[in-house]
Write a structure and sequence with these properties.
By secondary structure, this protein is an alpha/beta fold. It has 3 domains: 287 residues, 3-Layer(bba) Sandwich (FAD/NAD(P)-binding domain); 102 residues, Alpha-Beta Complex (Flavocytochrome C3, Chain A, domain 1), CATH 3.90.700; 105 residues, Fumarate reductase/succinate dehydrogenase flavoprotein-like, C-terminal domain (Methane Monooxygenase Hydroxylase, Chain G, domain 1, Up-down Bundle), CATH 1.20.58.100. It has 13 helices and 24 strands. A 5-stranded parallel sheet has the order 7-4-3-11-20, sandwiched between helices. Strands 21-19-13-23-24 form a 5-stranded mixed sheet, with helices on one face. A 4-stranded mixed sheet has the order 2-10-9-8. Helix 1 runs parallel beside helix 10. The model has no long low-confidence stretch (mean pLDDT 92).
């Protein structure tokens, strides 16, 4: 096990379970654990509501509507996953999803209704039925976060530490996870580096979008949980499958960091993607046209940009009911000088969602005892090569609850940590924009053997240029970004085909021989293996 240089812990605390992250996956896990009277410590990197969940404009997909069934939801999920979904994991998601949504509603979440008072269902890319529920039109994530946080704050058995970066896992003499080291930016008795001990640790830290120059992810999404798991010896998988959202507001070639998302729910209401001549880009390219799976739409936009030499395409939603259906996006557009009632919206793909992460089983257990993962930090196998729209919040609800159920039955006894055996070098914080630039140019939507090798060379150069870096939050973050970027690029180079959200210009075909996932380990050196996909074909 390798750890980051962080100094001697100055304080210690204990809980039965530590949950890292305060999005839908982490909060659901914490609340479900409390039904077994287990004490829970939630550690979150910024404010408790600052993660990706509250930014989710899309909704929650579940077979709750008239005539819809889990089997139909399963079929759409498998189709979007392009042959790499684990069927058993997908069955769990779609069959337990409806009850997970009902549980969320029981906790106070309020979803949009039609005039009769029944739940309103809409459609998004890749779905053949109206099965997406929304809250506040385009503010579903904010409502889910609000409801779960309200329940968490009322529970005295859950403690929350904000503004805290978890640095590394702690292991006991048997090699099982028994806590974490963390750095709290604050005042009082718990600031600086400390130790939090627990009988199990759950990683729910969200995505890694900040490895790219343009992303829909908030600034906190630096892959910390997946990097921590890697250093602790956990297997990761499917890291090459990064979903680029096809319709992100284009703010210019110099725009960096989090960009405004333009939800595909607009296309579910009839918005269309146009080129600079006013041609409908998706017409005739896919049976679902503008509601095709995200990888199909993103690739079509990128091809149109490449062929025309234009930096973006357009989204036409001038006929939509913006005030009632998309008030959040309306405000965002107006803030950038775009009136969507009469203007076309400039759009281009940007990094959005990581389908891969820490490889876990159906109980959320990683390859390291005592370490669990859920949400965007995990690879459950449900997304395969491309996530179906609005399955992400559902995955957090379903698998967060499954982790809690497993821990209620199998929680190990408390134990003490032993010192780690190796220290990982830190990356200079000034290298962060260089990592994002290298990844966007060489390992973004368009990839090739040449671009990926150049990216790996640049990442190696960044590592070699980082000398005698002092421990600090910025150094820990950029070191995590560098580790995840390296693992992603290696996997993307190895997968010599185009599949789902992984697009190789030099290997444009989808090949049967690649119907397996790439699993990576890191112990100071990288190690790869292959894992067969269970019953992937519908």
């Amino acid at each position: 096990m390798r750890t980051l240089k962080s100094g001697v812990p100055g304080w210690r605390m204990r809980a039965d379970v530590i949950v890292i992250g305060s999005g839908v996956a982490g909060l659901t896990t914490a609340l479900q654990l409390r039904s077994a009277d287990l004490s829970v410590l939630i550690v979150t990197k910024a404010r408790v509501d600052a993660g990706s969940t509250k930014w989710a404009q899309g909704g929650i997909a579940a077979a709750l509507g008239p005539g819809d069934t889990p089997a139909q939801h399963e079929e759409d999920t498998l189709e979007a996953g392009a042959g790499l979904c684990d069927r058993e994991a997908v069955k769990v998601l779609v069959s337990e999803g409806p009850e997970a949504v009902r549980r969320l509603i029981a906790r106070g979440a309020v979803f949009d209704q039609v005039a009769s008072g029944e739940m309103s269902f809409t459609r998004e890319g890749g779905h053949h039925r109206d099965r997406i529920i929304h809250a506040g039109g385009d503010a579903t994530g904010a409502e889910v976060s609000r409801a779960l946080l309200a329940a968490v704050t009322q529970d005295p058995g859950i403690e929350v530490i904000e503004n805290a970066l978890v640095i590394d896992a702690l292991k006991n003499k048997d090699g099982a996870i028994c806590g974490v080291t963390l750095h709290v930016i604050g005042e009082g008795q718990r600031d600086g580096v400390g130790e939090a001990l627990a009988r199990a640790v759950v990683i729910a830290t969200g995505g890694m979008g900040q490895i790219y120059a343009q992303t829909t992810n908030p600034v906190v999404s630096t892959g910390d949980g997946v990097a921590m798991g890697l250093r602790a010896g956990a297997a990761i998988a499917d890291l090459e499958f990064v979903q680029f959202h096809p319709t992100v507001m284009y703010l210019g070639s110099t725009a960096q960091g989090q960009q405004p998302l333009i939800s595909e729910a607009l296309r579910g209401e009839g918005a269309t993607i146009l080129d600079f001549e006013g041609n409908h880009i998706m017409k005739g390219l896919h049976p679902l046209e503008d509601l095709a799976p995200r990888d199909v739409v993103a690739k079509a936009i990128m091809r149109a940009m490449m062929e025309s030499g234009k930096p973006h395409m357009w989204l036409d939603g001038r006929h939509l009911n913006w005030e009632e259906r998309f008030p959040t996006i309306l405000v965002s557009c107006m803030a950038h000088g775009i009136d969507p009632h009469k203007d076309l919206i400039p759009i281009a793909p940007a990094a959005h969602y990581a389908s891969g992460g820490i490889r876990v089983d159906l109980a959320g257990q990683s390859s390291v005892p005592g370490l669990y993962a859920c949400g965007e930090s995990a690879c459950t196998g449900v997304h395969g090569a491309n996530r179906l729209a609005s399955n992400s919040l559902l995955e957090g609800l379903v698998f967060g609850a499954r982790i809690a159920d497993d821990l209620k039955r199998n929680l190990p006894p408390a134990s003490e940590p032993v010192p780690s055996d190796a220290s990982a070098p830190l990356i200079d914080p000034e290298m962060r924009p260089l990592i994002a630039d290298a990844m966007s140019k060489g390992a973004g939507v368009l990839r090739s053997s040449n671009s990926l090798r150049v990216t790996l060379d640049r990442l190696q150069e960044i590592s070699e240029r980082s000398k005698n870096v002092k421990p600090c939050v910025e150094a820990w973050e950029v070191t995590n970004l560098h580790l995840i970027a390296t693992g992603l690029t290696r996997a993307a180079l190895r997968r010599a085909e185009t599949r789902g959200s992984h697009w190789r210009e030099d290997f444009p075909e989808t090949l049967t021989k690649w119907e397996h996932r790439i699993v990576e380990h890191f112990d100071g050196e990288w190690h790869d293996s292959y894992e067969e996909v269970s019953n992937a074909t519908p």
